[in-house]
Amino acid sequence: MTGTVGVGRWWAAEIVRHLRRHFWLKTIGISAFMGVFFVAYFQVLRNPGAPVFEMPLTALDRAIDFQPAWLAAYLTLWVYVGIPPGLFLHLRALVAYGLWIGALCIAGLTIFYLWPTAVPPPDYSVDLARHPAFAILQGVDAAGNACPSLHVATAVFSAIWLHHWLPRLGAPVPVVAANWLWCALILFSTVAIRQHVALDVVAGAALGLAFAWPALRWVPVDADRH
Prior knowledge:
With 226 residues, the protein is an all-alpha fold.
């Protein structure tokens, strides 16, 4: 029992050690990155390069009811995407990671400009008195620029990187599995709250994969092992 507790303490302490390294620099940098992204996102949203295409619904979309409670899972993305970059110890590797996820976002924004898309008009009404966060969501994360879903793409990109990081830091299998569960909940939430349709999710996952795998090859994670 003592050995098991020791192992548990070791990997948790190792993760904390990584997160604390350059903490304020990472916090400010990640926040600035998100701010620049949203400026570019709204610029493209308001100035599309072509007529907006309405994404079609699939049988899966019709099978999933509107579930406003899933907004909580949806919003956790903004915590989730900050974990992988927070684990880097060395600034050179952190910058390389930022360039790759930045390239992913630029690719998505380019698609949005050249082929703007939107989800179908809502078939539901939200009681904003009971769910005031939806009013904020509509102002911050509009249901335009739908395909590919960058919410999904960045979640998948982050999940793949966490899958790469966690075993290196000694995390047990249940923690590694929890990472994928968290990602899956975020993906499901995008459809459950009608921010995206199933095709947006598929395209977003493909975009995340397309950038995550080469990033794993070129970002020097091995240098951060101690």
